[in-house]
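Hey, can you fold this one?
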Amino acid sequence: MPGEVIKYPGDPLQDFTLPKFLDRFVFKNPKKKNKEEMVINSKFSRKKTYVPSGIRALRVDSSSYLNEDESRIPVDELFMYKLVLSYCAVSFIKTTHFTIKSYSSAGHSSVV
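Sure. Predicted structure:
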């Protein structure tokens, strides 16, 4: 084929544009596979069988998770632990209405 002239019946400047190219993928039907082939041949099938255990099985916002010592929290969950812990502390302070009384040397009490 080297040296031959390529004959194209359409307008290549209109036919090979990005929208025309993407339209081919939008209207393309996906291939059908049965579920057994998908599980056996899937690259990510092991992720479906992961069951967390220990402290990783607890929800990050649960009270039992937040009551754990910081040294027991996994490194990859430490940021979320501190974030949720600080959020809970701020929301506790906002919802709890208490006053702190300070007593001066004259015996008068004032609300701070």
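Residues 99-105 have pLDDT under 50 and may be disordered. Let me know if you want another pass with a different chain boundary.
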